[in-house]
Design goal:
Belongs to the cytochrome P450 family. This protein has 16 helices and 11 strands. The chain is α+β, with helices and mostly antiparallel strands and 412 residues long. α12 crosses α14 and α12 packs across α16. The chain is globular and about 65 Å long. It binds protoporphyrin IX containing FE. The site of protoporphyrin IX containing FE has 27 residues, from α5, α12 and α16.
């Protein structure tokens, strides 16, 4: 699919989303952007490549809810001629034959197969598997009296649990985690890592075809949606990486909130009621997937008074939409009990049913087991020393050092 469209020059006053000035932006950068530009902002990506940044709650809903106007296939983009070979955002925009970028009937078919295969997961068994995995990870550091909860726990639990759901042998999980992290890091390791992951998924599909089991991969193989092994391989990879990375960041960001915010301190002393509230609060305030490329305009249209041209790229600002003053009064607190955030996306390409529910079982169980095992856990640094990784796309901590009494962790 190629689209010959006259691409006009970048909009005047477009905001650079890269470079020194952006890296050193002040805290109110995004608020100012909203005040000065409104809900749809003309922006420049690395290399001054133009795009639209959609930050209004209503506008993100509109774009994601109208696939006939704003479609997913990145080959529709009208600025491919500006993209250098080594562009750092290529991993987010390069086309691949996965469910993420499929459209229309093909997307519906694959998305329905994914939902069916995930829906067959027994939620109680999933919770039990998370408990066992959390216990085993905690056993490794419980006697030390200190640990970095990101590298020792939050980053490791979801891939271990999900690998089992998909039938990936335990012995292959460390390589899988390393390679998924390389791909997400989009540096020179990304391409070979992606190739190794594809081979791993191909081998997984072959072994499940020979010996089907009670796992998501076997169920997808049985589904008539997949005639081509390549399609299945790509979708397995999307499910495993789109699944485990944000779930791990969700766990880490929730543990941080519970350790730094006194509204949740009671939970650390044994109550459990607010784990679900903390998880929900994080989806409003510090959602793991902050921004996403995106959608591509199918026709010329207007969006919040902006003239959008065929093939224009729209970046979806999930976090910015959640922070839209139109839905969130500045006093905060709206998140507790209110699940209308856009952190799982929206519309046909939103996080497919029942993935958000499964992710929540994993994240909630992980946090609960940790609080149970290390009830006197506290931050080992000042709250304002905790560092967020400087990424526009994801919200995750570099580390979350805690200390606790080793005696409080007898192992179970
Ligand atoms: C069990 C864990 C998960 C699985 C298996 C999973 C799987 C997927 C898949 C397959 C898609 C692509 C849907 C499509 O294009 O048709 C997707 C989309 C998405 N997921 Fe998830 N996911 C999981 C957890 C999460 C978590 C924890 C978050 C963030 C809190 C998240 C946020 C999103 C978002 C924002 C999209 C939409 C992207 C877009 O609209 O372009 N997911 N997920």
């Amino acid at each position: 699919m190629t689209h010959e469209t006259a691409r006009p020059p970048a909009e005047e006053g477009a905001v650079r989303l890269y470079g020194e000035e952006f890296d050193q932006r002040s805290k109110d950068f995004f608020e100012r952007m909203r005040r000065e530009h409104g809900p749809v902002v003309p922006v420049l990506l690395e290399g001054d490549i133009p795009a639209w940044y959609v930050i209004g709650y209503r506008e993100v809903n509109h774009v994601t809810g109208n696939p006939a106007l704003f479609a997913r296939d990145t080959r529709r983009w009208n600025a491919w001629d500006l993209v250098p070979e080594n562009w750092s955002l290529l991993p987010f925009v390069g086309w691949n034959p996965s469910v993420l970028l499929a459209e229309g009937e093909e997307h519906q078919r694959r998305s329905a197969a994914i939902s069916d295969a995930l829906d067959a997961v027994d939620r109680t068994e999933l919770g039990d598997s998370c408990e066992r995995t959390a216990d085993a990870l905690i056993d490794e550091f419980a006697g030390d009296g200190e640990a970095d909860l990101i590298s020792r726990f939050a980053d490791r639990l979801p891939p271990l649990v999900m690998a089992r759901l998909f039938g990936v042998p335990d012995a292959e999980v460390p390589d899988m985690i390393r390679d998924i992290q390389y791909v997400a890091g989009s540096d020179e390791n990304a391409v070979p890592a992606h190739q190794r992951l594809q081979e791993m998924m191909r081998a997984l599909a072959a072994s499940r075809r020979a010996r089907p089991g009670p796992d998501v991969t076997s169920r997808l193989l049985e589904h008539s949606a997949y005639d081509a092994t390549d399609d299945l391989v790509n979708d397995l990879l999307i499910m495993l990486s789109a699944g485990h990375l944000p779930t791990g960041h969700w766990i880490g960001n929730t543990l941080r909130l519970m350790l730094v915010d006194e509204r949740f301190a009671v939970t650390l002393q044994g109550g459990r009621g607010s784990v679900a509230q903390a998880l929900n609060q994080v989806l409003w305030e510090d959602t793991p997937s902050q921004n996403n490329i995106g959608r591509f305009a199918v026709h010329a249209c207007e969006l919040a008074g902006r003239r959008i041209r065929p093939g224009d790229m729209l970046i979806l600002g999930w976090a910015a939409a959640n922070a839209d003053p139109q839905v969130q009064p500045p006093a905060h607190g709206v998140g507790v009990g209110n699940r209308a955030h856009l952190s799982f996306g929206h519309g046909d390409h939103g996080c497919p049913f029942p993935a958000p529910e499964l992710a929540e079982v994993i994240a909630r169980t992980a946090v609960e087991v940790l609080l149970d095992r290390l009830p006197d856990m506290e931050l080992a640094v000042e709250a304002d020393e905790l560092l967020w990784l400087p990424s526009f796309w994801v919200r995750r901590l570099a580390s979350l050092p805690v200390r606790f009494s080793p005696a409080a962790a007898p192992g179970r």
